[in-house]
Automatic annotation (TrEMBL):
It is an enzyme of class 7 (translocase). SMART domains: AAA. It comes from Brevibacillus thermoruber. One of its GO terms (molecular function) is ATP binding. The keyword Transmembrane helix does not apply. GO terms for biological process: amino acid transport; glycine betaine transport. This is Quaternary amine transport ATP-binding protein. It is found in: Cell inner membrane. It catalyses: a quaternary ammonium(out) + ATP + H2O = a quaternary ammonium(in) + ADP + phosphate + H(+). It is a peripheral membrane protein. It comes from the Bacteria.
Length: 326
């Protein structure tokens, strides 16, 4: 489902300035959007207005063309998955019962619920035979967060809200959970709104990043666009200096085809051992160096030829975006 913010603001009682100030945003169905910024910039407030945990002071939020203020809060929240940093599991309930809270409220029958628990635990790589009957205290922090993700997915929502879900997890487990989330997103294509103050996490996960400062949106773009072309000094300081290889790792093959015109290459070229449109350019670069090939074919999800990429195309694309810095 698409999500649209129209001049959305939030002023808390007694505050001198709005927590969210006149935000206009449009997100497409299936996008992974990351709200990035320092503490107090308004990103969590913006997120919580989507499921009406907070109400806007001004403006309208639409989901699939419907003003969410016309939908009862409880009904809306049952249609939207929600994951928080502390995972929010009920300590007195077994894992299987934690997962199916919403399906039970929706009146699902026992067989459907039982099947869904197994599907979800397998999806987050927790063996149902081992974990269904356990309590949250019997799981590690990372395992609990996996259950939190499974619970958010229980009623198969189109939208998933995630508020710093991996913030309290150690770095190694955090990376593992990020990998799991990317795998799940590639499989299910949910519309995900994800809040973080961690720049590397945002760059790794997002299709697009919304950078916020003092309640306002200061830049929206792909990870590569944010990194290569920061809109102002605030964004530049926020993302810091990243190496050329880091920039390359955030660029996808489809970006190189678009920027360099490589898609116009003849399909008659050697199309063996191709790379995918959404593969990282850093991987393609490494493949070119290792094989000594001048160029390598790119194919889409259906295996259809999309173009040829060579070292010159990659360098040209990096040069084009780098020259756009302000």
């Amino acid at each position: 489902m698409g999500i649209v913010f129209k001049r959305v603001s939030k002023m808390y009682p007694g505050a001198k300035t709005p927590a969210v100030d006149g935000v206009d945003l449009v997100f497409g169905e299936g996008e992974f959007i990351v709200f990035l910024g320092p503490s107090g910039c308004g990103k969590t407030t913006l997120l919580k207005m989507v499921n009406r945990l907070y109400e806007p002071t001004e403006g309208v939020i639409e989901i699939d063309g419907v003003d969410i203020s016309t939908i009862k809060g409880e009904e809306l929240r049952r249609r939207i998955g929600y994951v928080i940093q502390q995972n929010g599991l009920f300590p007195h309930m077994r894992i299987e019962d934690n997962i199916v809270v919403v399906p039970r409220l929706l009146g699902w029958d026992r067989d459907r619920i039982d099947k869904r628990v197994n599907e979800l635990l397998e999806m987050v790589h927790l063996d149902p035979a081992i974990y269904r009957k356990r309590y949250p205290r019997q799981l590690s922090g990372g395992q609990q967060q996996r259950v939190g993700i499974a619970r958010a997915m229980a009623a198969d929502p189109s939208i998933l809200l995630m508020d710093e879900p991996f913030g309290a997890i150690d770095p190694i487990t955090r990376t593992s959970l990020q990998d799991e989330l990317l795998r799940i997103q590639k499989q299910l294509k949910k519309t995900i709104l994800f809040v973080t103050h961690d720049v590397d996490e945002a760059l790794r996960l997002a299709d697009r990043i919304v950078v916020m400062q003092s309640g306002r949106v200061v830049q929206v773009g792909t990870p590569y666009e944010i990194l290569a072309n920061p809109a102002n000094d605030f964004v530049r300081q926020l993302v810091g200096e990243r190496s050329l290889f880091r920039r390359m790792s955030l660029l996808k093959n489809r970006d190189v085809l678009r920027l360099s015109g490589a898609a116009e290459a003849a399909a008659a070229a050697d199309a063996s051992d191709p790379v995918g449109l959404d593969d990282s350019v850093s991987d393609t670069f490494a493949r070119l160096v290792e094989t000594g090939k001048k160029s390598i074919p790119v194919v889409d999800e259906r295996g259809h030829f999309a173009g040829m990429i060579g070292l010159s195309h990659i360098l040209d694309s990096l040069s084009r975006t780098g020259s756009e810095r302000t």
